[in-house]
Amino acid sequence: MAVAQKRARSGQDRSVTFAFIRHGQTNWNRDDRLQGSSDIPLNDFGRQQATDAIEVLAGTRWDAIVSSPLSRARETAEIIAAGLGIELGPSYDELIERHYGDGEGATAEIIAERWPDHQYPGLESLDSVIARAKVALDKIASEYGSKNVIIVCHGSLIRYTLASLAGRPFDSIRNGSVATFERVGAEWRVLTVNDEPVEAEAVEYEPAVAEAVEDQSVGHEPVVALENRSA
């Protein structure tokens, strides 16, 4: 089944489709540890999740796949590239997961005890995450032109970026899940999240929406686990 419905457009209105894929599971994901920018490799289940994503992606024509340089994302991209028979493109430092400072490696229980407000020493600002995600998307769009590109990266970065693109918040992003979106001129439209279709109007990039997502997260116990799963 196709993950994105392509609509006929002409000239300057032609759309380009992208897919965000969150890397497969790692042992830190399994153990509910906040991962962030720590370079933790895939486990065997994570490799299977990457393989499973190939079937979801197979209904759309993809030209290339790029990734974050962290090994869990890069290996996920390698597995998918081989399965789809497409070009494995470069890694982009701008796609690295949000840096959670002293919180990285901590379990949900430790986070609840030490940092109930989620303000970890050394935490990267959300403004920084959103800005570099936008830089990465602009680079990829410029370098690949009209090609459809898969982008393998990380849960928090995907979640906040999709919120900015769609003009609405999204919940957690599952390991190995696919989110598709398209660009038409200066506008973006999110098509699917966690392999499911979404309803969203085309909008220009809106960082304030992602900031609202983070504001909603602070102080709610379920989001402790959400942060751990989203790295």
Automatic annotation (TrEMBL):
<dbReference type="InterPro" id="IPR013078">
    <property type="entry name" value="His_Pase_superF_clade-1"/>
</dbReference>
<feature type="binding site">
    <location>
        <begin position="22"/>
        <end position="29"/>
    </location>
    <ligand>
        <name>substrate</name>
    </ligand>
</feature>
<feature type="binding site">
    <location>
        <position position="72"/>
    </location>
    <ligand>
        <name>substrate</name>
    </ligand>
</feature>
<dbReference type="Pfam" id="PF00300">
    <property type="entry name" value="His_Phos_1"/>
</dbReference>
<protein>
    <submittedName>
        <fullName>Putative phosphoglycerate mutase</fullName>
    </submittedName>
</protein>
<dbReference type="InterPro" id="IPR029033">
    <property type="entry name" value="His_PPase_superfam"/>
</dbReference>
<dbReference type="GO" id="GO:0005737">
    <property type="term" value="C:cytoplasm"/>
</dbReference>
<feature type="active site" description="Proton donor/acceptor">
    <location>
        <position position="97"/>
    </location>
</feature>
<dbReference type="InterPro" id="IPR050275">
    <property type="entry name" value="PGM_Phosphatase"/>
</dbReference>
<feature type="binding site">
    <location>
        <begin position="97"/>
        <end position="100"/>
    </location>
    <ligand>
        <name>substrate</name>
    </ligand>
</feature>
<dbReference type="GO" id="GO:0016791">
    <property type="term" value="F:phosphatase activity"/>
</dbReference>
<feature type="active site" description="Tele-phosphohistidine intermediate">
    <location>
        <position position="23"/>
    </location>
</feature>
